Amino acid sequence: MSLPASAAPADIAQPAGATTYDVAIIGAGVVGCAIARSLAIRGWKAIVLEKGGDILEGASKGNSALLHTGFDEPAGGMELKLIKTGCATYRRIHGRMNLPLVETGALVVAWDEQQLGKLAGIAAHAQANGVAVSVLDRAGLRRREPMLSDRALGAVDVPEEAIIDPWSAPLAYIRQAMMHGAELLTGAEVTGLSRKRGAWRIETGKGEVAARLVVNAAGLFGDRVELLAGRQPGFTIRPRKGQFVVYDKPAHDLAKAIILRVPTERTKGVLITRTVFGNLLLGPTAEDQEDRIHAACEEAVLRRIMAEGEAMLPALAGQTVTATFAALRPATEHRDYVLKADAKSGWLTVGGIRSTGLSGSLGIGEWAADQGSIILGEARAAPPDDDLDWPRMPPISEVLPRPYRQAGRSPIVCHCEWVTENEVRAALSGPAPAGTLGGLKRRTRIAMGRCQGFGCSGALARLAPHLVEAGKTDAAA
Amino acid sequence: MNREPVVLIVGGGPAGLAAAHSLARRGVSNVVVVEREPEAGGIPRFCPHPTFGLTDFFRPMSGPAYAARWRSLVDPGTILSSTTVTSIGSELETMLSGDEGEVLVRPKRLLLATGIRETPRAGRLVSGDRPRNIFTTGALQRVLSEGKGLPFRRPVIVGTELVSFSALLSLRDAGVRAAAMVEPGERIVARRPADLFARAVLGTPIRYHSRVVRINAAADDAGRMASVTIEDAVGRSEEVACDAVIFTGCFTPEASLLGRRPDLRDVGTRGPAVDQFWRLAERGLYAAGNVLRPVETAAWSAREGALAGEAIADDHFGGAPLGERRLQIRADGLVAFSTPSCLTVPGPALGPMRMAVRVKRAAQGRFALSADGAIVWRSGLMRVRPERRIVLDPKFPDLENVGELRIGFEAQA
Which of residues 323-362 of A touch B (CB under 8 A)? Predict the structure, then answer.
C-alpha cells in the first residue's frame, strides 16, 4: 500500500514519512470524529486532518446537545435514516464509553389554537417516521411540566428524545478511532489536493499526507474543500447562526422535558432544554449569514429569545445567565444531508450536516465506512462491540459520579463547575489532548460556570499557560 | 471531620472569619469554617493594594496582610480549607466536598458568608465575538497571582467602580497600560479623584456616557480579539483597538447555594433576605457579608460577620429573640435595597449597623419609611449616589399590627 518514498516530501513532520493512509478525513467535528471511528474499527488506517488547534473547533463546538429521534424530519431522506441509525448506535454504545444519556423526552408544545390543531399531524408524521409519540391535553401537559406557562394548550410527547454530552461524545469517538490506529493531526489546514496513481496527495499546514480515500467532512468549509480538489461541490454552504443562552444551575429543573414549539413555516423556534451539566439551555435562533468564521452574539437577539423563553417558562425571569454563545450550522441549499460516494476518484462527500450532526454522526460514520470500504476494495463490516477497544471517558456530566465527589480528590480549581486539578491535567495529556483553551473547557467544563473565570483563571494560567498564552506581556517588556 | 457542627460557616473571607472569631470569644465550640480555596481570607488575598485595614485594624494594610490578620484571629483548627459546599438542603443538610469526597453534614446553624462575584461578559449580554482574553477583575488578579505574566498588552476596562481602579493598578504593576476605561454615567462610580489619578498617573482615559456594545475578533481568527465597539449616549460608535476586556464590578451576591427558593432571597439584591439578626426565613440559617448585597468594604463585611456571630451565639445560648413573624421591608422607587431587608417582630427594630440602603440613581431628597401606606419617618435632606453606602436610622412605630413596610425616596428638584 505504500507509495514510493519520493511521494513523501521531507517536510512531513508528524505523520510518518512514507505512509499512505487508507483514508484521510478532512475535519474533526463530530461527524469527522465519528467517521474516523467507524473506519478505524473496521481496520482501515485513517488520519483526521483538522485545521483548528483541537477537535470541535467549528460547527460542532456549540449546539443544543440533543439526541434527536428524527420524529419531525422529512420522511425518506438520508438525514432521517442516519439519525435513526446514529441514535440507536449511541444508545447501544454510550455505556461502554462512560458517556451520559438523560432520557428527558421532548414535548412539542402548542401555544395557540392554530398550533393545537397541528399536533395530530405532527404525531402522525412522527409515527410514520417510526418514532413513538402520544398527544397530551392541557391538563396532562400541566402535570408533566408544572412550571410551564398556563398558556400552553397541549403537546406531542416524544419520549425517546434525550440529552447527551456534545463534547465528550465526539472525543470518545476520536479516541476509539485512535485506539484502533487512527491518527489525529490538528493545525493541519488542507491547502491543496491532487490525485496521482490512485492516491490523494493532500497538502496541509503540517506537511503532505497521502491517502487512497478522502472523506470531506469539512463542515462549514465543505464546499471549499470540494473546489480545492477540483470537484463540483453541488452544494454551497450557507452558514446559519444560532444564538443560545445558558442559565445557571438553579434553573436546571424548571423544565423536565425538552420544550419544543410547533414549527412555523419559517422556523422551529427556540427550544428549552436541560443540559447534562445541570444548566438550562435556551435557543437557538436561525440566522443566515455569509461569514463562516465568526459567530457573534447580539444583545437584542439574546434579549428577544430570553423574553420568548420567559413567555414559555415564566420562572426563567431573573434567573442568572451563566453563558451566552453563538454557533454556526453548515446549512446548504438542500434540505437533506449531502452524501456522495465517488468510487472512481476515491472521494466521499459528507456535507450540509446542518443541525442534527450530533444525533446523526454515528449513522453517518457507518454510511461512510460502508461506502469507504467498498471504494477501498474490501467490504469490511464493523466487528462486534465486544471485540473492540473502548475508551472510558472522564465523567464531566452531572449524571455520572464526578471526581469532586470522590475521596482523595485533587483540589477543586473551578468552583462553579467543581472541576478538580487532576481532571485538568488529564485533559492536557493522553490521546487527543486539549489543544486550545476552548478544547480544555469542553473536556473539563473549567471556566464554563457562572463566574466565567474568576475562580479558575489562576489555575488555567498555572496548568495550561500554553493555551491561555500567558506571558505575552513579559515577552513584550 | 465532625458531621454535626454547632455552627457551619460557609466561606472563609472577612465575614466568615470575623463570625468565627466572635463565636470563639463567646465560647461557642465546635464551629467549622468551610473555605473552598487552599487558604482562607477571601477576596482580599488577591488585592495587593494597601486599601485595607484602616477602619478595623487602624492602619493601612495590603489585602493579603489583611486576610492574614483575620486568619490569625481564628483557631486554624476550625478552618476546613480546600473544601466546597455543594448544596444546602432542607433542615440545613449540607453536602461538602473535601478530602473525604462528598459528605453530608448536619450543622445546627449555618452562616452563609460566600461573598460576591463580578458579573462577567455573559451576564451582561454583550454582543459580538467570543475571543480569548475576556476577564473580570478577579480573574485578572488570579492570573497575576500565578506570576506567569498576562496574555495581553492593551486591555479596555469596563466600569469605574473602586474595583475597576484596583484592576487598573494591578495592570500597572504588571507593566500594562489600559487603552481606556468605559463608564456609562457622567462621572466615575468610585470616589473622586480616582479619575484624575487614572488619567494623570496611569495614562488611561475615561470614556464617559459610553458603553462597550460589541467585542470584535480579528477578521481571520475568531479566537483573537481585535477591538471593542464603544457607543456613546447619542448612539455614535467607535472602534477601540485592544487585545483584552476586563469587565469590572457590577457585583452580584454569590448565593447560588440558595437554589431557587424565593422565600430566602431578597428581590432587590437576589442575595439572601435577612432580618435584623442576620437570619433567613429558615430556622438556623444566617447570612452576612457581601453575599447580602453588592458590594461593601472588607471591614464592613467583617463587622457584619462579627455581629452575625454574636447573633448566632445568642441563639445558641438561648438569648435570641424569636419573634413571631418576619415583616419584609420593601424597597420602593429609587431605593434599590436595604440591609436588613426584613424585620422580625416583635423585637428590637435594628441592630448596631442600623439600616444600610442603596439607591439606583443620583438624587437629592429624603428617605421616607411608610407602614401600611402611611409615612412614619423621614430622613434629613440628603444627596445620594448609586453604589454608595447610605446608613439610615429610622424610628419605627410599634410594628405589632403593621402588615407592610416600605422604604422609599422623595426626590427634590
Answer: 323-326
Q: How many CB pairs under 8 A join A and B?
A: 163
Report which secondary-structure segment, H or E, holds B109: strand B109-112
Q: What mean pLDDT is predicted for residues A315-329?
A: 95
The whole-angstrom separation of Cα B7 and Cα B30 is 7
Q: Which cell numbers in the block locate residue A76?
A: 425518506
- Positions in chain B whose pLDDT score sits under 70: none
Q: How far apart are CA B158 and CA B245, in angstroms?
A: 7
Q: Which amino acid is at B347?
A: G
CA distance B113 to B269: 15
Vertex A433: Cα angle to A55 and A402 (nearest 5):
100
Whether A457 contacts A447, CB under 8 Å:
yes
Provide the β-strand partners of residue A328.
A241
- Which amino acid is residue B106, in one-letter code? R
Residue B2 contacts A, CB cutoff 8 Å? no
Q: What interface predicted TM-score (ipTM) does this complex get?
A: 0.94
Using CB atoms, pick whichever of B97, B127, B130 lies closest to residue A412: B97
Q: How far is the C-alpha of A366 from the C-alpha of A401, rounded, in Å?
A: 31
B82 inside 8 A of chain A by CB: yes
Q: By the 8 A CB rule, do B35 and B11 touch?
A: yes
pLDDT(A4) > 50: no
If phi > 0 it is left, if psi is from -120 to 50 it is alpha, else beta; for residue B333 that is left
How does pLDDT run across A348-402, given as a tens digit for each residue?
A: 999 999 889 999 999 999 999 999 999 999 999 999 999 999 999 999 999 999 9
- Distance separating alpha carbons of residues A450 and A402, to the nearest angstrom: 19
- B193 cis-preceded (ω within 30 degrees of 0): yes
Taking only the tens place, the pLDDT of each residue in B34-54 is: 999 999 999 999 998 899 999
Q: Which of residues 104-123 of B touch A (CB under 8 A)?
A: 117-118, 120-123
Question: Is some CB atom of chain A closer than 8 A to the CB atom of B130?
Answer: yes
Predicted structure pTM score: 0.94
Contacts of A389 (CB under 8 A, 6+ apart): A176, A179, A180
Which residues in chain B touch residue A468, judged by CB atoms under 8 angstroms apart? 132, 143, 151
Q: Is A441 at the interface with chain B, CB within 8 A?
A: no
| B235 lies within 8 A of chain A by CB | no
According to DSSP, the residues that pair with A102 across neighbouring strands are A163
The mean pLDDT of A440-469, rounded to a whole number, is: 92
